[in-house]
Amino acid sequence: MHLPPERLALPVVDPPAPRARIPVVAMAAPLVFAGVLWLVTASPYTLLFALLGPLVAAGSALDGRRGARRERRQRLRAARDDLAELRRLADAGLAARRREQEERVPSLSALTPRSDAGWWIGTGDVPSGIELVAEGETPELAPEIAELRAAVQTLRRVPILLPPGDELVVAGLDPLVRALSRALVLQAVARCAPGTASVTVPPDEEWASALPARCAPGREWRVETAAGPVLQLRRVAVLLGVAGLDLGGGEEAPSAAGVCTGWRPSFLARAEASAHALRLATAAVDAGWRPPGAIPASMELSELLADAGDAASSAATLGHDGASPVQIDLERDGPHALVAGTTGSGKSELLVSWVLALAERRSPTELAFLLVDFKGGAAFAPLSGLPHVVGVVSDLDPSTAERAVRSLRAELRRREGILAQHGVAEIGALAHGVLPRLVIVVDEFAALVAADPGLHGVFADLAARGRTLGLHLVLGTQRPAGVIRDAIAANVTVRLCLRVIDPADSVAVVGVPDAAALPAAFPGRAVLRDADGVREVQLARSGPGLAERIAARWADAPRPADRPWVDPLPARLTLAEMPRLPGGGPVVGLVDVPELQRREPFALDPWAGAVLLVGATGSGRSEALSTLVAASACATRWVVDEPAELWAALTEPPAAERSLVAVDDLDLLLARVDGEQRAQLVELLARAAREGRRGGVALAASARGTGGLQGAAGTFEQRVVLRLADRDEHLLAGADAPTFRADRRPGSAVWRGHDAQFALAPARPPVWRSAPPGIRLPEGRWALVTPDPQRWLDALAAAGVDAAPPGAAPAAVRVADADGWLAAHATLAEARREGWLLLQGCSSAELRTLTRSRSAPPLGDGDAWRVRADRVERVRLLVARDRDQARPSGASSASSP
């Protein structure tokens, strides 16, 4: 291994210049000049000029040497700066060469299909290829240059790569030879496409079996493909157990150039080699390779169905276990199956694939599906177009889901009857097409039974009797613990557990904890337990368009005539559509009886017992009462809002042999009277319910709830509960808790535990009005009690009627309030005795005070009480001038008497 050379120039400082000579002439000239002056002047001071020459010469020499030393120091400082920059460049070059060498190291755990890559045999110290050159020497920088040379001439602990080739021999101690050979074999396999290499290793190197290659035992280490050998450990190129490794010599005699020192071979223990082999296999699987006998990572259902070939028509090909396709036959291995798996494990996809795999091989006359989706209704959407599907129900419509499941009990009885009719013991003995098998697929069984715990019993019954009757359950749930009870689990023989979080869930389904260790990266990976034992499988995905292709295949095929349940009741019915009963009783709608797989006429006969329709605002209770009236087809007294009319309807003799008293909003009507009158009305209702049937009179009423009926609720023997505001009111009305639904549509009701739908009546009946006897003023001598006597006096005077207070002169009509009449007790007693006492606009308390009578009918507008022989009756107050008009009560009476 040789790295490309790189030359870096070292900084050089020129040597110092030679010292300058002493200027003799410059020193002698001042001496001569001083001697001449002394001869001329004879003054000894002139001899001082002789000293200037030597002093100037010495100073000049010293100054030159000092400047030379300063310049030398400056050049050395600049050279050291250049040397530091050179060190930085050299370090960057070393890092780049190390990085380049490390990038060339082949991975032992990733597929690297490169034929030009070298063989990585370990790490060591190699010459860096960086050379420091200089045109001269600088003694002052010699130690620093020597240190820099030592730092850059060697790359330490870098990957050692041998040139690419296919022949190598590893010689040395056997454990060391094996350790290095493992690394070389892994590199060789990583260079090959998955599944194309053949590996030969010693027999005890079991880790090699996990490689994405064909592995065979042998004496030599070898990797080859169809194109030729990739690695043969033959020629001597690596010597183990020596201090150095020559990287640049020939085959037999390595040269001294490029010697690697401090070599650390790339030894791999068996455990490390096994981990790398598994990673290579995983990368190969992700690239699409499938090892012989391995479970595929994913697969398409369409491919499996195309290869199903000779499989039984009752078997569903659902996946692969690595050795062969996985087929589940509910008729042979079942009759029932359980599928468990956490969110995202592929549970819903499996249920869809299971239905498609069965529908692809069986006609609608042989096989039918009931799909129950309690995860929002979208899971089985692709299957709705299959002609085999007799129904799809979801938690978006809980009532429909519940009634569909409850209908299955009736389906059991129906199938038992068919078997008995044909004289066979099980469905397999029937002729082809007589009775299709029914597969009930439930996605999220836990949510279904949580909505109605009573369904546990239904499914237990289906599980126990399903085999002979051709009913099969496929139950999907996230966590089976506490959901799949023993009565069901005992008959579930096919069990599939996809990935779960808790090992206990896996044990509960398949008896082993393996499903908790399934990889999340492989949706559809599951543990299957059936007649063949427990094994890991990969389940197929249905893929887009498959359901449409299967539906198109059977588009023209005949379909089964019978369904396991009838459709829910329609939202709108008319009386003209209703069937007629043989006895001629009133039919007001239809009743849903899913456990008998039929609809029945909603017969509501008020002559069989008083009828009470209870419902909140907007529930359709008034329309339901109108329907009952129309269906009864008899004389009807329709009472609305007026307590006086109800009293009259209950007390007046019937106008025909059969008549019906229908009271709308009875609770509101009772709330309009005081306590005494309310109690009397309740008693009249009870009497009408008890005795009316003998006289041909029936009673029916509607109310917003039973709480406002003030004891009258017990009068009604038949109750129909429409939508109420909450569950508590629903229970108080006499219905069961499971029948409560806050979203009931108008006219939908509960009748004897079943859902019912009222038909629409053509129109509401006319409001019935009674005709109380009229009292004409002033014909007769009347004592009128009113809370506003003056206004009545004025009104009667304006009408020409002789009226006066009790204490005044005799008059045809005497008028006063209750206190006034109590003061005129003699006149009051006479009026009571003669039957001329009238009370208009008075309260029941005033009536009791004046007459000591507790029983009095309620009053309507313009009505009054007449007291005669201690008997109180309701009368209509008239005046002589306008005998055909009812006298208005209250404040308006004065203006229009």
Automatic annotation (TrEMBL):
The residue ranges crossing the membrane are: 20-39, 45-64
Q: Which residues form the signal peptide?
A: none
Which superkingdom? Bacteria
The record's section on PROSITE patterns has: FTSK (PS50901)
> Is Cell membrane there in the keyword field?
no
Listed A to Z, the keywords are: ATP-binding, Membrane, Nucleotide-binding, Transmembrane, Transmembrane helix
The chain positions of domain FtsK read: 323-507
Which residues of this UniProt protein bind ATP?
A: 341-348
Q: Which Gene3D superfamilies match?
A: P-loop containing nucleotide triphosphate hydrolases
Q: Coiled-coil regions in this chain?
A: none
What the entry lists under Pfam families is as follows:
FtsK_SpoIIIE (PF01580)
Please report the name of this protein according to its UniProt entry: FtsK/SpoIIIE domain-containing protein
